[in-house]
Design brief:
heterotrimer, A mainly alpha (about 300), B alpha/beta (about 260), C mainly alpha (about 400), B: about 260 residues, alpha/beta, Rossmann fold, 6-stranded mixed sheet, 4-stranded antiparallel sheet, 10 helices, C: about 400 residues, mainly alpha, two-stranded antiparallel ribbon, 17 helices, about 75% helix
Chain lengths: ~300, ~260, ~400
């Protein structure tokens, strides 16, 4: 039973991170129907930026919570800036091109960003300091939930609530929903579609950066390639939940996280990454609309 | 005269929306049949059900090709419908823009020919004969349809009216016994519409292919059709000759709104 | 007039300044700072910031100029059958120019291995392998419009077929060659069957997943594929039992690859203007209309996947024979991405374009050593830039034209 709980917590932790990244995929897909292949790289850049900022601060004598907060804030700002720029450079010029063009451009962007970090920084794994504080009240539950897991799950939960509020109740959220439903119609009623798309990239990227900081603290090391796998898994989560649906992405991410956790715990850890891919392929073949998505009707 | 196309009790639901509600339609051989109705009446949905793009949620579709037996085609694959001799065009033009005009028509011959990968590589006598026949027949169709100058032009560069005609040529290349035209005159100028009218009549009389069309241009429909069906809100409102339809009070009501009689 | 030019110039200037400031800000942490946590030192590379600023300033102007041109280039491609042509395009389409060019290429290809070192012959052989891979992938991506990101799996299938057959049964190269192609074809059909219903982006991601699964299985299933260490000692191809030294074997493989290239070009070329080739194109152009023409979508997709995978299988066998060693590390997603960028650069639908694309992308990084580290960076940039400014590739595919005599009777 303890083992089960441990795996469950592990799964939820993983799932929370996937959720933070999956939201970016699902929001972008909802609005411009593009799989933003470079999204995983935005997350990786967030982690790298946090590492660099934390390193600089630590060497200048700062420590503790202030490092965490500063590093996270800078990481969020930079990831958002990268997300914004990627959209402007690689996707915006292709908005009216055939469907294949932006997809190939996105793959190109992903490869470019990976290698940009590889060339500018290093190909080695870098140790990432655990910036997350210890929570004393969890001492009684040592064994199946640590402070890091608690913080990751808690942060994600809070962010989900905030995001839902943002989308439901703010002007920007309304504009986003309108654009997702019908871009041309939204444009006609005066929504600045370009700004909505930019905002979507900015929000999605910022969330990915938070995911990046959290996972890097949890795992303890990063390299330029972490975005690729995390990206694919988060995308799987988004598809699993029904791409375009925000609660779907969260649900999908948690399901995927737990599946992975239990599968590696009870079956085999050799094939850890295979499970996600297999799950992805199975869903796409059986129920491409996902758990919470609705089936699109073909327009002829 | 036995109908060549029959829809019996055909229904199509999208979620809760009844796009088609127990529709019955007969198309007679050698005729031009029209389907009219306000926007959103379910006309294109009806075509999509017949051509296999949608699978109807209820009812049946039968075809009776000349010289063949009656055959149920409900819910079969799109390409099977064409193979069975029912070809169509689309409301918003769907030519193959980056292929040449001639190639667009040659594609239509696909289901009537059979050269495979091996034939393509070896270019044996059979394949080459077939290929020559495809080219010759496609050119012949283009000539009849009135596009002879630009056969090697990319289809996207054709003027709008010619693109519409090309779509018809492409459909004719599949050797149909019934041709479905979805708003063929949409966006055409009066001259182009007159040419189209002549073309549709020649398809019936010279090619001996029955035509079933959806159209909003009433002058065209009334001048052309042998019989007319009227649809509204997914239901069949009326059928008859153009003369009868013109005088049907229900039809007038559907088109002009309430209280026409008042 | 001059004031208009002046305002335009100032506008460009302003934009360039903003762009360069933005990119200096954007790249600041990653390009300038490098934290060494082991020795606790921070490296500040301020020069990089200067390069970025100057670079993006200039690029902003280039981009502005190209954006204008890009639109006109696209318009030009619209009128591509006829009209003004790119010089490369003329070389391809005018017999007067293309025949002598072909002759020169043939002579170079024939004498290349005799005037250059083993090392260079090897690189050229690799480049030729990518020519075939590019042409193969082009059948799926360029012609049928199905974005396949797991192409490397079929390449791996070929390589492992030979490796395993030799390892277990001592099967030689010449028998393994068709078997490897067959294995890849079968795998292609097996993959295509379940994913037939998927469209565009979903297909891309599933094929990507498929490629990764293949690699992960090869890595972890020790009993089958001998894990990450792979299989070594695979023999090079034989020639009537002749003993060959290293140099001769390299040259022999080179000519083998030339032969395979010629066969591929011949086949792909014939397919292009055939009934099947047209069906592939129609599928790419409009899936619904394609079916409405009586084309069985399922069959066409299967054909595309099968035809595309076969070439990867063939090249896979040759790869195993060339390196005498296979392991999963040779079959990563980056490999698929590289082949895709060849197709994208070369032009989806043009054989010559893809040959040029493969040679450029494989040979340039090899010969310009400085480029070596930036190889993948370059591939990424190429994909983005090509999509934005020249989606049809460096050479536009030209459709076959037919002549008719309008005889009056």
């Amino acid at each position: 039973m303890d083992y089960f709980l441990e795996l469950l917590i592990g799964g939820l932790t993983r799932g929370s991170i996937y959720a933070l990244i999956a939201l970016g995929y699902t929001m972008v897909y909802g609005i411009i129907e593009l799989i933003n292949f470079a999204h995983g790289e935005i997350y990786m850049i967030g982690a790298f930026t946090a590492l660099i900022v934390a390193g600089v601060l630590a060497m200048s004598g700062m420590s503790g919570l202030s490092v965490l907060i500063l590093a996270s804030v800078v990481a969020v700002i930079y990831s958002a800036a990268y997300g914004f720029t990627v959209e402007k450079v690689a996707y915006k010029p292709l908005r009216h091109a055939s469907r294949l063009s932006p997809l190939i451009s996105a793959i190109g962007m992903s490869i470019f960003l990976q290698n940009y970090v590889l060339v500018a920084q290093t190909s080695d794994f870098l140790p990432f300091p655990n910036l997350l504080p210890d929570l004393p009240f969890l001492a009684n539950y040592v064994g199946f939930i640590g402070s890091t897991e608690f913080i990751i799950i808690g942060t994600t939960a809070v962010i989900m609530v905030l995001l839902t509020l943002l989308i439901k109740f703010t002007r920007m959220g309304k504009a986003m929903r309108a654009t997702a439903q019908d871009r041309n119609m939204a444009m006609l009623v005066g929504v600045n579609v370009n700004r909505v798309i930019s905002n979507t990239f900015i929000i999605g990227s910022a969330l990915a950066a938070i995911g990046g900081v959290l996972i890097a603290s949890h795992v303890g090391r990063i390299n330029f390639y972490i975005g690729f796998l995390a990206g694919i898994k988060a995308f799987t989560a988004a598809v699993l939940g029904g791409i375009g649906s925000i609660p779907g992405a969260v649900l999908g991410a948690l399901v995927l996280g737990c599946t992975e956790s239990f599968a590696t715990g009870y079956v085999s850890s050799d094939y850890e990454d295979v499970f996600a891919f297999v799950l992805l392929i199975v869903i796409l073949i059986i129920k491409p609309s996902g758990l919470l998505g609705h089936k699109p009707t073909q327009k002829v | 005269m036995n109908p060549i196309l029959e829809a019996k009790n055909l229904s199509m639901n999208f979620g809760g929306l009844k796009a088609l509600d127990r529709v019955d339609i007969d198309v007679l051989p050698g005729q031009i049949t029209a389907l009219i109705g306000p926007n959103g009446a379910g006309k294109t949905t009806f075509f999509n059900c017949i051509t296999g793009i949608y699978s109807p949620t209820g009812g049946d579709i039968f075809i009776t090709p000349s010289g063949g037996g009656r055959k149920k085609i409900t819910g079969i694959n799109i390409h099977k419908v064409t193979e069975n001799g029912v070809a169509r065009t689309f409301q918003n033009i769907r030519i193959f823009p980056d292929m040449t005009v001639l190639e667009n028509v040659m594609i239509g011959r696909h289901c009537r020919t059979e050269a495979g990968v091996l034939g393509a590589i070896l270019r044996d006598k059979g394949t080459m004969t077939e290929e020559k026949a495809i080219v010759a027949r496609s050119y012949e169709i283009l000539k009849k349809i009135g596009i002879t100058e630009h056969v090697n032009l990319l289809a996207r560069n054709l003027p709008y009216g010619a693109q519409r005609r090309l779509e018809i040529a492409r459909a004719l290349a599949t050797d149909p016994f019934l041709l479905l035209l979805d708003e063929p005159a949409a966006g055409m100028n009066p001259q182009e519409t007159r040419d189209l009218e002549a073309l549709i009549i020649s398809i019936r009389d010279e090619w001996e292919i029955s035509v079933f069309l959806i159209e909003h241009d009433m002058r065209l429909v009334m001048g052309l059709s042998d019989s007319v069906y009227v649809m509204d809100y997914g239901e069949m409102l009326a059928r008859g000759t153009p003369q009868e339809i013109r005088q049907n009070p229900e039809v007038i009501k559907a088109y002009l709104g309430e209280d026409v009689s008042a | 007039m001059s004031t208009l030019n002046y305002t335009k110039y100032m506008e460009g200037m302003k934009q360039a300044v903003v762009v360069s400031l933005w990119f200096m800000f954007l790249t600041f942490p990653i390009m300038v700072i490098r934290v060494n946590t082991i020795e606790n030192i921070i490296e500040w590379r301020w020069m990089n910031m200067l390069y970025i600023g100057a670079g993006s300033f200039i690029l902003s102007f280039v981009w502005r100029k190209m954006s204008g041109r890009g639109i006109s280039a696209r318009k030009e491609s619209i009128g591509a059958q006829g009209g003004r042509k790119f010089y490369l395009q003329r070389l391809v389409s005018e017999k007067r120019l293309s025949l002598p060019a072909l002759g020169i290429v043939a002579v170079i290809a024939l004498f290349f291995p005799f005037v250059s070192s083993i090392y260079q012959t090897n690189i050229m052989t690799t480049a030729l392998m990518y020519v075939v891979l590019g042409l193969g992938l082009n059948i799926v991506v360029g012609q049928a419009g199905l974005l396949n990101l797991g192409y490397v799996a079929f390449y791996a299938a070929g390589a492992y077929t030979y490796a395993l057959l030799y390892h277990h049964f001592g099967v030689g190269f010449w028998l393994a060659l068709p078997l490897g192609a067959l294995a890849a074809t079968v795998l292609g059909v097996l993959l295509a069957l379940p994913v037939l219903r998927l469209q565009g982006d979903y297909l891309a991601i599933v094929t990507l997943g498929f490629g990764e699964i293949t690699r992960l299985v090869l890595e972890n299933w020790n009993e089958f594929s001998y894990g990450p260490s792979g299989i070594s000692g695979i023999p090079r191809p034989g020639l009537f039992g002749m003993e060959m030294d290293m140099h001769e074997a390299t040259v022999y493989l080179y000519f083998l690859m030339i032969l395979l290239c010629i066969i591929t070009i011949f086949v792909v070329n014939r397919l292009q203007d055939s009934r099947i080739g047209r069906a592939l194109l129609a599928l790419r152009e409009d899936e619904i209309a394609c079916q409405a023409m009586g084309i069985n979508k399922t069959m066409v997709k299967l054909t595309a996947f099968a035809l595309g995978s076969t070439w990867a299988g063939l090249v896979g066998v040759i790869f195993a024979a060339k390196t005498t060693f296979v392991n999963p590390a040779s079959f990563t997603f980056l490999e698929s991405a590289m082949i895709l960028s060849i197709v994208v650069l070369g032009g989806t639908g043009s054989i010559i374009g893809i040959i040029i694309g493969a040679l450029l992308l494989i040979l340039l990084p090899e010969y310009l050593r400085a480029f070596g580290d930036y190889r993948m960076l370059l591939f990424g940039i190429i994909m983005v830039i090509m999509m934005i400014f020249r989606p049809q590739g460096i050479v536009t595919g030209v459709r076959k034209t037919y002549e008719f005599h309008t005889e009056e009777k």
